[in-house]
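Late entry, written up from scratch paper. The run itself happened at the end of the previous shift, but nothing got recorded in the book at the time, so transcribing now.
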Amino acid sequence: MRTRLVAVGAMAGTLLLAACAGVQKDEEATTTTEAAGASLTITSPTAGTSVGGNVVSLDVEASGLEIVKADGDRSGNTGHYHVFIDKDPVAAGETIPREAGIVHSTDDPMILSGLPIGSHRLVVVFGDGTHARIGDASAETTVDVKGPSIDATAPATATVGQAVKVETKVDGFSLIKADGDRSAKTGHLHVFVDRAPTAAGQPIPLEAGIIHSAAPSIEVPGLAAGEHTLWVVAGDGTHVPFEPRVMDKVTVTVS
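Output as recorded:
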């Protein structure tokens, strides 16, 4: 009888542990669908704001969680911003993809580049360290982009030794070689490789890490293994960036 009681007790303990594990698993799976007290507000731009060029500086105010880069944390206590451009955000708990039209960022303000001419809806939500959406907190605004504009694309991945081809489409100005024209009706492109674009009003230098081109298709050679950021910036006939800014950004991972 003693042996039977021990066996029954062991089985009950096993079932209890399994039940607890199941509860724990469910809790872990849903931790980032809620964030008590978390809130988001867009302070600038206000809805309907007109923007020259094709770059929007998006200012937000967040409360209720700490803004950090994606680090795997699923507690709901930390997270980062995700901007959905002209698309509805995913539901709470769902993974936010890395794709065109979705910006992942910890910056404030966030610089949104490459916007086409026209009206755009911008929705900001929180995502956790695994890029799963946290709760239902969101903020929304609209902007009217007046242009000119650049849309740049490149392969997401490349191999070492392979040149990366950046394809561009411009709207609102014509691509020509530098000829001194400062009207912003004509200009050429500059690819900044792993470096920040030149500040407004400052000439873009002719030096390593910056490619000047009047062609819509630009090859970037010699990228080492790793992740690379390529800024494509429109400049006038004197190699000065357009003002307001006209630029786009692509990221390429080389392996």
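The domain at 33-147 is CATH 2.60.40.10 (Immunoglobulin-like).
(Scratch paper discarded after transcription.)
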